[in-house]
Amino acid sequence: MDNRTFFKATLAAVLLACLFALSAAPPASAIEFENSKFRRGDNYSSALVRAWEKGRSSAKASAFFVANNGRRLLVMTASHVVGRTPVFSYRGKRSTRSKALIKERDFAIYEVHFDGTVRYESVGKFHIAQTRPSFGQSLAVVGYPKGFSGAPMFSGNCRLMPRNKLLHPTFFNCNDLDRWCDYAEAVGKSRTTCHADAKAVSRGQVRQCSLPLEKRVTRHERNAYSTHTMNCAVRLGSSGGPVILAKSRSSRGVIGMPSAVFARVYGPFPQEVGVGVATFSQRFKARARRIGIEVR
Prior knowledge:
There is one protein chain. The chain has 296 residues and is an alpha+beta fold. Helix content is 20%, strand content 26%. It contains 5 helices and 15 strands. The protein has a 7-stranded antiparallel β-sheet with strand order 6-5-2-3-4-8-7. Strands 10-11-12-15-14-13 form a 6-stranded antiparallel barrel. The model is unreliable at 14-31 and 264-272 (pLDDT under 50).
């Protein structure tokens, strides 16, 4: 093989690699909004915990320490993140045991032990905000979204919106949906929307993404827990992390957690479609108080 042929073959291989990388890249909808972008959240790293279900080490998500009167190591996360056999890791140290104290809808609070290597006094903490959720509230999200090499990331400049703004599928056209389904397949993620769309095509039916928004069927995929919507940048992995009130005391007042990641709010498109967020009910706050968690 001469140099010219070798150069052509190398160039072709590079182009193919680039095309695969682009096809596997998450669509803009999974990355950021016009108003909200990711930035490093090192100020919150002392309070963040990695969480996952035992046996699913590749599916790590987010959790966080919560302030409590008993000065115990209490960790809050989303139930769908940890399943029945939770694993928690803080700064490279894995928990030795954990006990569920509260499980309600998708919220879970555990008392966690690290065999004395991590103490209550040495960690940062969030508290549950007493504030009732109201539309237009300024929010931010902290956690470990996928794609940032395990770095804690902060997404600000967000606002709380009604749940009915969370249309599903929230894709403005079929090209958006196809890009999302290509991404989901490339990373091994099952998506009900993609399966339903493929089934409709095989039956000769009209694709939902080709219909006007007002005529589409409103479906929900793992966001049955969503009570509100927010236009905040999150990704897979943000689940279980705190949604905080941007103007709360020390910005550590938690109002809820991300519950679904579906949106297309980029470029010329409107900002009324968002990411599902589950907010704490007054009943949950009362239960949290009874086990000594700070609600203020």
